[in-house]
Amino acid sequence: MRHELTVDGRTLSYLDFGGPGRPLLALHGGMSEALAFTGLAESLGADWRVIAPDQRGHGDSDRAPHYRREGYVADAVALLDHLGLDAPVPVLGYSLGGLNAIHLAAAHPSRISALIDVDCGVEVNPGGNEWMAFLHTMRYTAPTREELLDAAGPVGARFVEQALRPLPDGAGRRLPFHPQDMLDSVESCRGDHWDAWLGSDCPALLVHGTHSRSLPQGQADAMVARRPGTSYAPLDGDHFVPFTDPQGFHKAVGTFLATL
């Protein structure tokens, strides 16, 4: 069920998939939204109650003044407070959400009981993401769906074709994110995040697409070796392996959660 709260005057929308199980906070990747975890919530069944926000600037959540780590982390903490989840909960994050989850666990260890990082590295160089060039030509709004998808091109369209939103006045459609916000968000990920990765000591799982260009094998191996209590789940796929191999992804996550 979809709900919302207000954070610093902004609407933060979130999905609570419900159920009697223990809560699991799930943070989606860039240019995505909470609905990306529908399959995971179904796979985990009654054991876990998946709660997933549309992170700032994504989906039904409002745009934000900035897209730095502290903003994303503050939103996640505000959601936990809003839900009254004082006891620590596991957090799962994919890609952008993985980086946010890493920093959340490091900055607020009393709120996080376990960390699941899905194909997010700790040495981030956005310059290596040439495939994201489509963001420079995308249009945020257009009178028709076709115009938005044409401007997105074949690569960009795959991110938005099922997620376009109607404009409030009914005069057209908009993307589920503003292209400039996504460029800013990607750039804000740049840098070395080893301190944050090593800054928490809760049980952790690294789910890795072994052909991922975002997380090279050597870096994944180092992340597991250097952080005590970190398990490793390699999947045969690229950075998008949660969607290309959902069965493998769901199994890896479920197996880890069952150990907590």
Briefly note the structural class of the backbone: alpha/beta
Read across the widest sheet, the strand sequence of neighbours is 1-2-4-3-5-6-12-13
Distance separating the two termini: 26 Å
What is the CATH superfamily classification of the largest domain? Alpha/Beta hydrolase fold, catalytic domain
Task: State the CATH class of the largest domain.
Answer: Alpha Beta
**SSE succession:** EEEHEHEHEEEHEEHEHEHEHH
How many domains, as an integer? 2
CATH topology of the largest domain: Rossmann fold
The percent of residues in helical segments reads 25-40%
Contiguous uncertain segments of 5+ residues: none
Mean pLDDT: 95
What would you say this structure looks like, in words?
- This protein has 2 domains: 186 residues, Alpha/Beta hydrolase fold, catalytic domain (Rossmann fold, 3-Layer(aba) Sandwich); 52 residues, no CATH class.
- The protein has 9 helices and 13 strands.
- It has an 8-stranded mixed beta sheet, sandwiched between helices.
- Strand 5, helix 3 and strand 6 form a beta-alpha-beta unit.
- The protein is globular.
- 42% of the residues are buried.
Break the fold down into its secondary structure elements and pairings.
Layout: E1 2-7, E2 10-16, E3 22-27, H1 38-44, E4 48-53, H2 69-83, E5 89-94, H3 96-107, E6 112-118, E7 123-124, E8 141-142, H4 145-160, E9 165-166, E10 173-174, H5 179-188, E11 191-192, H6 194-197, E12 204-209, H7 217-226, E13 230-235, H8 241-244, H9 246-257
Parallel strand pairs: 3-4, 3-5, 5-6, 6-12, 12-13
Antiparallel strand pairs: 1-2, 2-4, 7-11, 8-10, 9-10
